[in-house]
């Protein structure tokens, strides 16, 4: 008894530190999950109201500007509206392609409910990595319950889908529609993700498309000014 007591007293400090670290990790993980949930909740709400009231917002802003500034603003807003519409249409095509790929891929592995799980994972690609991760976890859990030998083919389907979506489908179906080269699409996703994390990945492509339009208008304004001064 004395030996156990001595050992407990000797390691009491390290046990206490380990418990504190565990609690801190759990608290940090919980705050990250809450932040992620709020971000996922706010993005569609903000997007809906922006799309709904976009013309009204631009019109209200244009009325407060002189006529020579209001017309370029309307033109700029129209171009942004068009490119964001193209982005959303491209995303729908990406979701359709990936739902088909994951659905058929998981179905042919022999996974129970593989078709439904694959379609769900494909439709969730608009949440970037999080959506596919959710589908991947569900598929892995199903494979573990049904037959652990299915783990390798399931992982293969998701690995192939990740490479296909990130390197080919999104750059082609979304990037070309919004005027971004496939290489620029990949660079935008990497840079925005590095700077802003998950939120950066979500806004990378529409923000890059809007930035391209703004830079184009700034270039035209600067060029016109140069010609006028000359």
Automatic annotation (TrEMBL):
- Topological category with respect to the lipid bilayer: Multi-pass membrane protein
Residues that span the membrane, as ranges = 32-51, 92-109, 115-143, 150-170, 182-215
Give the UniProt record's GO annotations in the biological process aspect. transmembrane transport
**Broad class of where this protein is predominantly found:** membrane
Subcellular location per UniProt equals: Membrane
- One GO term of the cellular component aspect? membrane
Keywords, sorted A to Z? Membrane, Transmembrane, Transmembrane helix
The answer to whether keyword Protein transport applies is no
* InterPro entries named in the record: AI-2E-like
Family from the record? Belongs to the autoinducer-2 exporter (AI-2E) (TC 2.A.86) family.
Annotated PANTHER family: AI-2 TRANSPORT PROTEIN TQSA, TRANSMEMBRANE PROTEIN
Which protein are we looking at?
A: Protein belonging to Uncharacterized protein family UPF0118
